[in-house]
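Key result, reporting period 2: structure in, sequence out.
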Protein backbone atom coordinates (compact mmCIF):
# COMPACT_ATOMS: atom_id res chain seq x y z
CA UNK A 1 0.00 0.00 0.00
CA UNK A 2 1.31 3.44 -0.94
CA UNK A 3 1.93 6.05 1.77
CA UNK A 4 -0.65 8.39 0.17
CA UNK A 5 -3.33 5.71 0.22
CA UNK A 6 -2.61 4.98 3.88
CA UNK A 7 -2.95 8.65 4.75
CA UNK A 8 -6.29 8.86 2.97
CA UNK A 9 -7.55 5.84 4.87
CA UNK A 10 -6.53 7.36 8.20
CA UNK A 11 -8.34 10.60 7.31
CA UNK A 12 -11.46 8.69 6.25
CA UNK A 13 -11.33 6.72 9.50
CA UNK A 14 -11.29 9.93 11.51
CA UNK A 15 -14.36 11.20 9.66
CA UNK A 16 -16.24 7.91 9.71
CA UNK A 17 -15.54 7.50 13.40
CA UNK A 18 -17.00 10.87 14.34
CA UNK A 19 -20.44 9.45 15.01
CA UNK A 20 -19.25 6.70 17.38
CA UNK A 21 -19.08 6.90 21.12
CA UNK A 22 -15.81 5.55 22.48
CA UNK A 23 -14.32 2.21 21.46
CA UNK A 24 -15.60 -0.77 19.52
CA UNK A 25 -18.72 -1.18 21.66
CA UNK A 26 -21.66 0.84 20.39
CA UNK A 27 -22.98 3.61 22.65
CA UNK A 28 -26.17 3.55 24.69
CA UNK A 29 -29.37 4.43 22.91
CA UNK A 30 -28.24 2.73 19.69
CA UNK A 31 -30.78 1.48 17.21
CA UNK A 32 -31.67 -2.19 17.00
CA UNK A 33 -29.16 -4.66 15.58
CA UNK A 34 -28.15 -3.22 12.21
CA UNK A 35 -29.34 -4.96 9.07
CA UNK A 36 -27.17 -5.84 6.11
CA UNK A 37 -24.13 -6.76 8.25
CA UNK A 38 -21.20 -7.69 6.01
CA UNK A 39 -18.43 -8.28 8.52
CA UNK A 40 -17.79 -7.99 12.27
CA UNK A 41 -14.44 -6.51 13.35
CA UNK A 42 -13.51 -6.95 17.02
CA UNK A 43 -17.19 -7.00 17.91
CA UNK A 44 -18.16 -4.05 15.68
CA UNK A 45 -20.67 -4.85 12.93
CA UNK A 46 -19.98 -3.17 9.58
CA UNK A 47 -22.91 -2.90 7.18
CA UNK A 48 -23.68 -2.14 3.57
CA UNK A 49 -24.37 1.46 4.61
CA UNK A 50 -20.86 1.67 6.09
CA UNK A 51 -19.41 0.51 2.79
CA UNK A 52 -21.40 3.14 0.90
CA UNK A 53 -20.22 5.89 3.21
CA UNK A 54 -16.63 4.72 2.96
CA UNK A 55 -16.86 4.57 -0.84
CA UNK A 56 -17.77 8.26 -0.94
CA UNK A 57 -14.37 9.02 0.48
CA UNK A 58 -12.84 6.93 -2.30
CA UNK A 59 -14.61 8.93 -5.03
CA UNK A 60 -17.35 6.39 -5.83
CA UNK A 61 -20.26 8.65 -4.89
CA UNK A 62 -21.54 6.21 -2.29
CA UNK A 63 -22.99 3.83 -4.90
CA UNK A 64 -20.12 1.36 -5.16
CA UNK A 65 -21.22 -2.25 -4.63
CA UNK A 66 -20.08 -4.16 -1.56
CA UNK A 67 -17.25 -5.82 -3.46
CA UNK A 68 -14.54 -7.70 -1.53
CA UNK A 69 -12.06 -4.88 -2.14
CA UNK A 70 -14.48 -2.31 -0.72
CA UNK A 71 -15.16 -4.44 2.36
CA UNK A 72 -11.44 -5.02 2.88
CA UNK A 73 -10.78 -1.28 2.75
CA UNK A 74 -13.55 -0.69 5.28
CA UNK A 75 -12.14 -3.37 7.59
CA UNK A 76 -8.74 -1.68 7.49
CA UNK A 77 -10.35 1.69 8.23
CA UNK A 78 -12.13 0.18 11.24
CA UNK A 79 -8.92 -1.41 12.52
CA UNK A 80 -7.04 1.88 12.22
CA UNK A 81 -9.91 3.67 13.96
CA UNK A 82 -9.94 1.20 16.84
CA UNK A 83 -6.15 1.45 17.20
CA UNK A 84 -6.32 5.25 17.17
CA UNK A 85 -8.88 5.12 19.98
CA UNK A 86 -6.64 2.79 22.00
CA UNK A 87 -3.80 5.28 21.63
CA UNK A 88 -6.02 8.16 22.77
CA UNK A 89 -5.73 9.95 19.45
CA UNK A 90 -9.45 10.79 19.58
CA UNK A 91 -8.45 13.65 21.90
CA UNK A 92 -6.74 15.43 19.00
CA UNK A 93 -8.16 18.97 18.83
CA UNK A 94 -8.76 18.98 15.07
CA UNK A 95 -10.50 15.62 15.25
CA UNK A 96 -12.67 16.76 18.16
CA UNK A 97 -13.72 19.87 16.26
CA UNK A 98 -14.77 17.82 13.21
CA UNK A 99 -16.51 15.28 15.41
CA UNK A 100 -18.52 17.93 17.24
CA UNK A 101 -19.67 19.43 13.94
CA UNK A 102 -20.73 16.04 12.56
CA UNK A 103 -22.38 15.04 15.85
CA UNK A 104 -24.37 18.28 15.77
CA UNK A 105 -25.56 17.52 12.22
CA UNK A 106 -26.55 13.98 13.24
CA UNK A 107 -28.40 15.26 16.32
CA UNK A 108 -30.28 17.83 14.24
CA UNK A 109 -31.32 15.11 11.79
CA UNK A 110 -32.51 12.82 14.61
CA UNK A 111 -34.46 15.61 16.30
CA UNK A 112 -36.15 16.58 13.05
CA UNK A 113 -37.00 13.05 11.86
CA UNK A 114 -38.10 11.71 15.24
CA UNK A 115 -40.01 14.92 15.88
CA UNK A 116 -42.01 14.26 12.73
CA UNK A 117 -42.75 10.72 13.90
CA UNK A 118 -43.84 12.10 17.29
CA UNK A 119 -46.13 14.67 15.67
CA UNK A 120 -47.65 12.08 13.35
CA UNK A 121 -48.29 9.45 16.05
CA UNK A 122 -48.75 11.37 19.29
CA UNK A 123 -50.68 14.39 18.00
CA UNK A 124 -52.06 14.00 14.48
CA UNK A 125 -52.86 10.31 14.99
CA UNK A 126 -54.80 10.98 18.18
CA UNK A 127 -57.12 13.67 16.83
CA UNK A 128 -60.57 12.42 15.85
CA UNK A 129 -63.62 14.26 14.54
CA UNK A 130 -67.00 12.53 14.41
CA UNK A 131 -70.06 13.39 12.31
CA UNK A 132 -71.81 14.44 15.53
CA UNK A 133 -68.94 16.89 16.21
CA UNK A 134 -69.38 18.38 12.76
CA UNK A 135 -73.17 18.64 13.08
CA UNK A 136 -72.93 20.37 16.48
CA UNK A 137 -70.36 22.82 15.16
CA UNK A 138 -72.43 23.57 12.06
CA UNK A 139 -75.55 24.24 14.12
CA UNK A 140 -73.64 26.48 16.55
CA UNK A 141 -72.03 28.57 13.78
CA UNK A 142 -74.59 28.31 11.01
CA UNK A 143 -74.90 32.06 10.45
CA UNK A 144 -71.13 32.52 10.06
CA UNK A 145 -70.72 29.37 7.98
CA UNK A 146 -73.38 30.52 5.51
CA UNK A 147 -71.65 33.89 5.01
CA UNK A 148 -68.59 34.72 2.91
CA UNK A 149 -66.42 37.62 4.01
CA UNK A 150 -63.97 39.72 1.98
CA UNK A 151 -60.87 40.24 4.14
CA UNK A 152 -57.68 42.33 3.99
CA UNK A 153 -54.77 41.36 6.22
CA UNK A 154 -51.46 42.63 7.55
CA UNK A 155 -49.36 39.93 9.20
CA UNK A 156 -46.29 40.57 11.34
CA UNK A 157 -43.92 38.38 13.33
CA UNK A 158 -43.60 39.84 16.81
CA UNK A 159 -45.92 42.13 18.72
CA UNK A 160 -43.66 45.19 18.43
CA UNK A 161 -43.71 45.16 14.62
CA UNK A 162 -47.45 44.54 14.55
CA UNK A 163 -48.06 47.39 16.99
CA UNK A 164 -45.96 49.71 14.81
CA UNK A 165 -48.12 48.87 11.78
CA UNK A 166 -51.30 49.39 13.82
CA UNK A 167 -50.02 52.79 14.97
CA UNK A 168 -49.52 53.83 11.34
CA UNK A 169 -53.12 52.85 10.57
CA UNK A 170 -54.37 54.71 13.61
CA UNK A 171 -52.38 57.71 12.39
CA UNK A 172 -54.39 57.79 9.19
CA UNK A 173 -52.33 55.79 6.69
CA UNK A 174 -54.47 53.73 4.28
CA UNK A 175 -54.56 49.98 4.93
CA UNK A 176 -53.17 49.18 1.47
CA UNK A 177 -50.22 51.52 1.97
CA UNK A 178 -49.19 49.94 5.28
CA UNK A 179 -49.73 46.43 3.89
CA UNK A 180 -47.65 47.20 0.78
CA UNK A 181 -44.80 48.59 2.92
CA UNK A 182 -44.83 45.37 4.93
CA UNK A 183 -44.17 43.37 1.75
CA UNK A 184 -41.84 45.86 0.02
CA UNK A 185 -39.19 44.05 -1.98
CA UNK A 186 -41.01 40.73 -1.65
CA UNK A 187 -44.05 41.19 -3.89
CA UNK A 188 -43.87 42.64 -7.42
CA UNK A 189 -45.44 46.06 -7.80
CA UNK A 190 -49.09 45.92 -8.79
CA UNK A 191 -49.90 42.76 -6.84
CA UNK A 192 -52.01 42.93 -3.68
CA UNK A 193 -51.54 39.68 -1.75
CA UNK A 194 -52.94 41.30 1.41
CA UNK A 195 -56.35 41.28 -0.30
CA UNK A 196 -57.56 37.74 0.35
CA UNK A 197 -60.87 38.12 -1.48
CA UNK A 198 -63.96 36.33 -0.23
CA UNK A 199 -63.31 33.57 2.31
CA UNK A 200 -65.57 30.89 3.66
CA UNK A 201 -65.71 30.21 7.39
CA UNK A 202 -63.56 27.01 7.25
CA UNK A 203 -60.84 28.98 5.46
CA UNK A 204 -60.39 31.41 8.35
CA UNK A 205 -57.51 30.70 10.76
CA UNK A 206 -58.70 29.81 14.25
CA UNK A 207 -57.41 33.11 15.65
CA UNK A 208 -59.59 35.06 13.19
CA UNK A 209 -62.85 33.37 14.07
CA UNK A 210 -64.70 35.37 16.67
CA UNK A 211 -62.99 38.52 15.35
CA UNK A 212 -63.79 38.76 11.65
CA UNK A 213 -67.42 37.79 12.16
CA UNK A 214 -67.88 40.76 14.52
CA UNK A 215 -66.40 43.39 12.17
CA UNK A 216 -68.65 45.55 10.02
CA UNK A 217 -67.64 46.32 6.41
CA UNK A 218 -64.85 48.91 6.48
CA UNK A 219 -64.03 48.17 10.11
CA UNK A 220 -60.51 47.23 11.21
CA UNK A 221 -59.58 44.79 13.97
CA UNK A 222 -57.20 45.35 16.86
CA UNK A 223 -54.10 43.14 16.96
CA UNK A 224 -55.06 39.49 16.58
CA UNK A 225 -52.55 37.16 18.24
CA UNK A 226 -51.80 33.82 16.63
CA UNK A 227 -49.43 30.95 17.34
CA UNK A 228 -45.65 31.34 17.22
CA UNK A 229 -45.54 35.10 17.61
CA UNK A 230 -47.71 35.87 14.60
CA UNK A 231 -49.98 38.92 14.74
CA UNK A 232 -52.61 40.10 12.29
CA UNK A 233 -54.49 43.28 11.60
CA UNK A 234 -57.68 42.52 9.66
CA UNK A 235 -60.17 44.63 7.79
CA UNK A 236 -63.51 43.49 6.44
CA UNK A 237 -64.45 44.88 3.02
CA UNK A 238 -67.77 43.18 2.38
CA UNK A 239 -70.04 40.32 3.41
CA UNK A 240 -72.36 38.27 1.26
CA UNK A 241 -74.52 35.18 1.74
CA UNK A 242 -72.95 31.92 0.63
CA UNK A 243 -75.91 30.48 -1.25
CA UNK A 244 -74.14 27.17 -1.87
CA UNK A 245 -73.50 26.54 1.85
CA UNK A 246 -75.24 23.56 3.44
CA UNK A 247 -74.23 20.92 5.92
CA UNK A 248 -73.43 18.46 3.15
CA UNK A 249 -71.45 20.94 1.04
CA UNK A 250 -69.47 22.23 4.04
CA UNK A 251 -69.00 18.92 5.85
CA UNK A 252 -65.54 18.10 4.48
CA UNK A 253 -64.26 21.62 5.08
CA UNK A 254 -65.61 21.62 8.64
CA UNK A 255 -63.95 18.27 9.37
CA UNK A 256 -60.61 19.75 8.29
CA UNK A 257 -61.30 22.89 10.33
CA UNK A 258 -62.03 20.93 13.50
CA UNK A 259 -59.03 18.65 12.96
CA UNK A 260 -56.77 21.65 12.39
CA UNK A 261 -58.04 23.39 15.53
CA UNK A 262 -57.69 20.27 17.67
CA UNK A 263 -54.21 19.51 16.37
CA UNK A 264 -53.13 23.06 17.17
CA UNK A 265 -54.67 22.85 20.65
CA UNK A 266 -53.05 19.49 21.37
CA UNK A 267 -49.71 20.67 20.04
CA UNK A 268 -49.82 23.75 22.25
CA UNK A 269 -50.71 21.68 25.33
CA UNK A 270 -48.01 19.13 24.54
CA UNK A 271 -45.33 21.75 24.05
CA UNK A 272 -46.29 23.40 27.35
CA UNK A 273 -46.28 20.06 29.19
CA UNK A 274 -42.86 19.18 27.79
CA UNK A 275 -41.43 22.54 28.85
CA UNK A 276 -43.07 22.41 32.29
CA UNK A 277 -41.70 18.92 32.93
CA UNK A 278 -38.17 19.63 31.72
CA UNK A 279 -35.06 21.06 33.30
CA UNK A 280 -33.88 23.78 30.91
CA UNK A 281 -30.71 25.59 31.94
CA UNK A 282 -29.10 28.42 29.98
CA UNK A 283 -25.48 28.67 31.12
CA UNK A 284 -24.37 32.18 31.96
CA UNK A 285 -22.22 33.71 29.21
CA UNK A 286 -18.58 33.66 29.97
CA UNK A 287 -17.13 36.98 31.10
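The corresponding designed sequence is given below.
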Amino acid sequence: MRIGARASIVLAVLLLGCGRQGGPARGKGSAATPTGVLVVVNGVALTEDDVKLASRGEGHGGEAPAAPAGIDTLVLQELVYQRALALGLDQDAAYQKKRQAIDAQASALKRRELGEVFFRKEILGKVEVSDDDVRRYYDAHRKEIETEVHVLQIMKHGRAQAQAALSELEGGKPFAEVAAATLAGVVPRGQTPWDLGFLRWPQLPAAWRGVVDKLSPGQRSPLVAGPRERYWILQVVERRPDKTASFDSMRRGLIELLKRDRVEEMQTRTEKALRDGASIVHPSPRG
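Confidence is low (pLDDT under 50) at residues 1-16, 18-30. Strands lie at 37-41, 44-47, 147-157, 195-199, 224-225, 230-241. This case is discussed further under Risks and Mitigation.
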